Amino acid sequence: MPTNFTVVPVEAPAGGSEAPSAQGLQQPEHLDEPTNESSRSQDRAGAHERQAQQSERGSVERGSQGDGIPRESSPFINNSSFERGRLYEGKNMALFEEEMDSNPMVSSLLNKLANYTNVTQGVVEHEEDEDTKRKEIKAPRMGTFIGVYLPCLQNILGVILFLRLTWIVGTAGVLESFIIVFMCCAGTMLTAISMSAIATNGVVPAGGSYYMISRSLGPEFGGAVGLCFYLGTTFAGAMYILGTIEILLKYISPNAAIFHGGEEATLNNMRVYGTCIVAMMAIVVFVGVKYVNKLALVFLACVILSIMAIYAGVIKTAFDPPDFPICLLGNRTLARDKDFPCAKYIEANNITVTTRLWRWFCGNNPYLNATCDEYFQLNNVTEIQGIPGIASGVLLDNLWSIYSDKGTIVEKRDLPSVPVLDEAKDEQDYYVYTDIMTYFTMLVGIYFPSVTGIMAGSNRSGDLRDAQKSIPTGTILAISTTSFIYLSCIILFGACIEGVVLRDKFGQAVNGNLVIGTLAWPSPWVIVIGSFFSTCGAGLQSLTGAPRLLQAIARDGIVPFLQVFGHGKANGEPTWALLLTALICEIGILIASLDSVAPILSMFFLMCYLFVNLACAVQTLLRTPNWRPRFRYYHWTLSFLGMSLCLALMFICSWYYALIAMLIAGCIYKYIEYRGAEKEWGDGIRGLSLNAARYALLRVEHGHPHTKNWRPQVLVLLNLDSEQLVKHPRLLSFTSQLKAGKGLTIVGSVLPGTYLDKYAEAERAEENIRSLMGIEKTKGFCQIIVSSSIRDGISHLIQSAGLGGMKHNTVLMAWPQSWKQTDNTFSWKNFVDTVRETTAAQQALLVAKNIDLFPVNQERFSEGNIDVWWIVHDGGMLMLLPFLLKQHKVWRKCRMRIFTVAQMDDNSIQMKNDLQMFLYHLRINAEVEVVEMFENDISAFTYEKTLLMEQRSQMLKQMQLSKNEREREAQLIHDRNTASHATGMVKSQTAIAAPEKVQMTWTKEKLVSEKHKNKEACMTSYKDIFSMKPNESNVRRMHTAVKLNGVVLNKSQHAQLVLLNMPGPPKNRHGDENYMEFLEVLTEGLNRVLLVRGGGREVITIYS
Question: Which residues form the SLC12A transporter C-terminal domain (predicted)?
């Protein structure tokens, strides 16, 4: 009989030594308390001495770092434990001692912010590293004018202005040229506004557009657009080099050409000279980057002097136009040099002498009776001024566009001419021809590179005194200035220069001079030399900046195959990136045509600007708490307009180039998303995803979804070993094979213990599971629960996993293989409790038995069956699951077979027809078979198996009880089996339900006699276990399990997968172990089994 004992704890002694904590509290007070004034002065002297020693120790460091205060790469990183100890010295902050390691003092934070630097990862930093003699690093002192305005001016004004703008004005006319320039300038202005908002939203380290885009839109967009910007900058270097060669061979030294002849010779000259210049520039950048930086002011001076010479020449034409006559035959422009008389013949000493022009058109015959070209005979030769001046009224003639095909003679529109019907179409050297076919969109692509370079100021943010003030002001002023220069030049060129001269791209009609140079004052050489050095400088700047941009992308680690380009020389110079840049630049050189290279880099720059506007628009619309730019003159509509304009310009320039650029960016995006390193930069796309997720979750209904929208939202319960590794990784493989369901996946596990003790293990377990999910390509979330018991942890997961309407409706777990082991009782008890809880939550349950035999994602079943044994209707889960599995390549070639069981009074033929019709309406292809199971007597095997099951269950209970409990339980068994069944049950329930509380006093003799009595009862109870009779209900259940197992084995023993209805657990918890035995018998002999228990709702429907 159970007996209660009262245990009295031993009380601790009242006296004792003091707690150590009390001593610890008194000791600092005693040590810190000064005894007299002399001791305080000694303390101060010692403090000064320690400071002097620290100062002396840091002298070497100050020699290299300037002011002796170390500069931080981040203002929120603690230096060392020594500094922390010094910062928290004293007793005033003793209350916060526990937070010293993680939370810095405010004074420490402000000190680090004051000493924070973001010096550009470029020329300035490398100069400082190389100059070991420098004793002091000067703080950034560049203002808006020097630091932003002038660099932007230098980068925006370039080769297109000097070599192509006059030709664009002549071809497109003043009106359309104005539209082209205005669109491009408007796009850059809107981009500058968006860039200003991003650049002033916190401290922007060096990196320019790449940094801003990547930190605003995430690593995928940042890497894709950063690489596009890198390619654009590299091809810009090729364009500048081609412009340099064109100026050299066309206008400075035409005799330096290696190849002579037609267009092919010109392209070959470009390739040879371009390759040599690229090699020389790469060597200069590799050896002496600091000289390139110092020469930037010289190149900028050349640009400014050239612009001033153009305006001075325009003013001069108002009262003294330059003498640059051009020769026309009829209305056709003739190519001429300095010794070319513009006449058919001239009078010399009263003698008519034919000119070179006559000999050209008359077969080199100098006589007046020679047979000449018909057009030459019918039309007069006229000489007009190529630059009539701003007061000439030529602007009206140049308002409209004149587009033409390649090889068309440049003609003056309003000059009379006698046409010739049967004229030969072959090009002749004495006319000026168009070298390419011209149209509006092509001119946009050629012109747009002239407005790029707006990022020059943001690239120098580390050198600016106040970057958040200088970048917006300087950039917008620079764009306004250059826009004014371009737009005014459009009008002034159209008002000063004759149309045929404007359309003469290479100045053949004006003695081979640069057209814009003929307008300049005081000499055309000002423009020629200025533009030559300007293009050289721009090419050097491109080859200097592009490798550093590639190095920044490589060092971010978002594109794995580019990591080699993050390395370089000891001082940080990007050697490998420079080599790759030179090779890509050489590709542009081999194209050998400035007009062909310009649209390529236009695509890349436009894509970059497009995403800058997108970044600003996204951040503005999200209104995240961190979006607080100092620049206030922005709006999301302006950013959206700028984005739309950039996208339109891309397709206007060249729709196929635009598609190729987008394809390249898209491939890079997907590559970074698939293979790139995980980066969390707090970007806007993450914020956009959060907003979208929040909006979607609020819209998802909290109730049960409609049957048509039902999909398996799976909670996967994993078991972990002692090392927090997944015991059954193939459970995740099976989960990924169900991904055709397009549902939510939550992978969960439970660690026993307390969270404070198991925090590190929980983190490690989550990391291991996430890693395995990545290997198995399981898309979903991971959740680790630390609970006092595994059962409670699983219950918490089933109840609380998911969020809002996105909660799981299906639980997937593995069958506990070792549940029969005596030391693993909790395994099957937790399993049965999980079955009950999923049933109570109206969730479906999937139990994979022999999970280690399930296929991994790399396996392929070339044949075989997926057999579904549909015993009871569970809402359609048994139909839906094999359909989803067959969508995966592992199971795709398996056939689906559905078996159902017919009883004695069922019509098997009608059942088969009805099932086939049901599957037809469900749009599921499967073979159907009805298996008949007739009632028969219970076999001796079934009876014996049930008996062994109950005996084993009872013995396990005995083995798991304590000694006293075992003896008491044995007495109960003995009483139950010797008395009548009903009486015994009542007595046992009474004894268990209401144990009697008795106060007893034991003597030694009574204790010994009681022990012998209990031992005898225990031995008797074991005999009773082997003589007990099985329960009738258990016999019937075992009969069903054995019989159904035989039928399944007969049909599906060799199936690749068998899906079975999972029977529910008994309502009486005393039969839980028998329930496990029934399931074991039901699935015995089958390789791969998926037990399915529906949630009680329809999950599949025949309706659309």
Answer: 729-846, 847-1104
